[in-house]
Amino acid sequence: MSAQDISLRISSLAPPRGQQSYPLRISSPLPLPQLSSLLNLLNQALDIIDISTWTGDPKNGSFISGQLRLLADTIDEAKTVMKGGEDIAGGKWWEDDFASDEMIFAPPLPPNLSPHLTLTPTSLLLTIRTLQPSPSSSTPNPSSTPTSTTSPSTHTGLSLRTRLTQILAPMPVATHDEADRVFVYRGQEVKVRDKVRVESQDPSLMAVGAKLSAVGHAVEGWRYKLGVVMEQGMEDD
Question: Is the peptide bond before 23 cis (omega within 30 degrees of 0)?
Answer without folding.
Answer: no
